[in-house]
Design goal:
Layout (H helix, E strand, L loop, with lengths): L11 E4 L1 H14 L8 E8 L3 E10 L1 E3 L7 E3 L1 H8 L6 E3 L7 H7 L9 E4 L10 E9 L8 E7 L1 E3 L3 H11 L9 H31 L7 H13 L6 H65 L5 E4 L5 E4 L2
Parallel strand pairs: 1-3, 1-10, 6-7
Antiparallel strand pairs: 2-3, 2-6, 4-5, 7-8, 8-9, 11-12
Protein name: 4131_t:CDS:1
Organism: Ambispora gerdemannii
Keywords: Proteasome
C-alpha cells in the first residue's frame, strides 16, 4: 500500500530476480537491437528501512531520441492497473533529463516513488540495478532549491520459490565443466575490473567538480574521504614485511608443486622404460622358445628304423631290420 514513510540514504532497495527477468523480457520484446529504453512499474512494499520490489509490469512508453523532453507514457494504462498494482517505476539504462518529470508523474499513485534503473546489457559483473529517490537539494549559495535524485543501495534477493524457479531457468546455460580454480580466478578478475571501473568513475566525477562542471556534493566528498582513510599504509615497515612473507610462502608452495610434478613425471618415465624393456625381453624369449620347439619337431619327424653302414670301399649300404 502507498505510505508516506520518509526516505533516507540508509534505505535499501531489494529487487527480486523475477523482476529482472521481466525487465529483460520486456526489453527484448520491445527495444532489442535499438538504443531505446523501456519503462515499467515496479511493485513492492516500503518497510521503512527497505523497499522490497517483488513484481512488475510493462508500460507503453515512447520518447524522442533527439529531444528527450518530448516523451509519451500511457496514463490510462497506468491508472487502469493502479487498483491492482501499486508502487514504483523502473527505466534504464541511465538517468536522463526527463526522468524527474516521469518520477513526478508517478507521485499521483504513490507518495514516494522509487526510480530503479536496470541495465539489461551490463559490461561489468555485479548488481545490474541502481535505485534513486527524488529529493529537494538545498544549495550553499542560498538560491532556490532544486529537485534531484538521491542514490540509495540496492540488493538482489529472492524467496525460496523464486530461487528454485531461477535455478531451473539458468540450469541449461550453466557451464558445469568449469573447475573451481578457474571459477575463482574468473571471479577475482571480474572483481578487479569492477574496482577499476569504479575508480575511473570517481576520478571523472572529481575532475568535473574541479572543472566546475558539477557542483560540490559534500556528502560524496565525505564518503570518498572515509574510503581513503580505510586504505592501509603500504609503505610501512610492518606491512611490507607481511606482504613479503605472504609472497614468499606462495612462491614456496608454487616451487614445491613444480618440483613434485617433475619428480612424478620422472618416476612415470622410468616406470615406462622398465615396462618397455620387460616387454622386449618377453618377446625375445618367446622367439627363442619357438625356434627350440621347431628344431625338436624336425628331429622327431626323421625315420628311426633307417640305418646307414659304410663299407671299406666307402660306398654306403642301406640295411633294414
Amino acid at each position: 500500500m502507498p505510505t508516506a514513510t520518509p526516505i533516507s540514504q540508509n534505505t535499501t532497495v531489494i529487487v527480486h530476480p523475477l523482476v529482472l527477468l521481466s525487465v529483460v523480457d520486456h526489453y527484448n520484446r520491445v527495444a532489442k537491437s535499438t538504443k531505446k529504453r523501456v519503462v515499467g512499474v515496479l511493485l513492492g512494499q516500503n518497510n521503512g528501512k527497505t523497499v522490497n520490489v517483488a513484481n512488475s509490469f510493462a508500460v507503453p512508453f515512447e520518447e524522442d531520441e533527439k529531444d528527450l523532453s518530448v516523451w509519451f507514457l500511457d496514463h490510462n494504462y497506468v491508472e487502469a492497473m493502479n487498483d491492482m498494482f501499486k508502487k514504483v517505476n523502473g527505466i534504464g539504462p541511465k538517468l536522463r533529463a526527463s526522468d524527474l518529470e516521469i518520477n513526478e508523474l508517478f507521485k499521483r499513485y504513490t507518495p514516494n516513488p522509487v526510480l530503479v534503473i536496470v541495465d539489461v546489457k551490463p559490461k561489468d559483473i555485479g548488481i545490474p540495478t541502481d535505485a534513486y529517490f527524488a529529493i529537494e537539494e538545498i544549495k550553499d549559495d542560498g538560491t532556490a532549491t532544486t529537485k534531484t535524485f538521491m542514490h540509495v543501495p540496492s540488493q538482489i534477493e529472492a524467496e525460496e520459490a523464486e530461487e528454485i524457479g531461477v535455478e531451473h531457468l539458468l540450469r541449461d546455460i550453466k557451464d558445469n565443466a568449469v573447475g573451481t580454480l578457474s571459477t575463482r580466478i574468473n571471479d577475482q578478475l571480474n572483481s578487479l575490473k569492477g574496482l577499476q571501473s569504479r575508480l575511473e568513475e570517481i576520478r571523472e566525477y572529481l575532475q568535473k567538480v574541479v572543472n566546475q562542471d558539477l557542483p560540490v556534493n559534500h556528502q560524496i566528498i565525505y564518503n570518498l574521504q572515509d574510503i581513503l582513510n580505510l586504505l592501509p599504509n603500504l609503505y610501512g615497515g610492518e606491512t611490507v614485511r607481511s606482504f613479503s612473507i605472504k609472497t614468499n610462502d606462495q612462491l614456496l608452495v608454487i616451487y614445491l608443486s613444480s618440483l613434485i610434478r617433475a619428480v612424478i613425471a620422472l618416476h612415470n618415465l622410468i616406470n615406462n622404460k622398465i615396462e618397455n624393456l620387460k616387454g622386449e625381453q618377453q618377446i625375445t624369449e618367446g622367439g627363442e622358445k619357438k625356434d627350440d620347439n621347431a628344431s625338436k619337431d624336425k628331429e622327431a619327424a626323421a625315420p628311426k628304423d633307417a640305418k646307414v653302414e659304410v663299407k671299406e670301399e666307402g660306398e654306403p649300404k642301406e640295411q633294414k631290420k
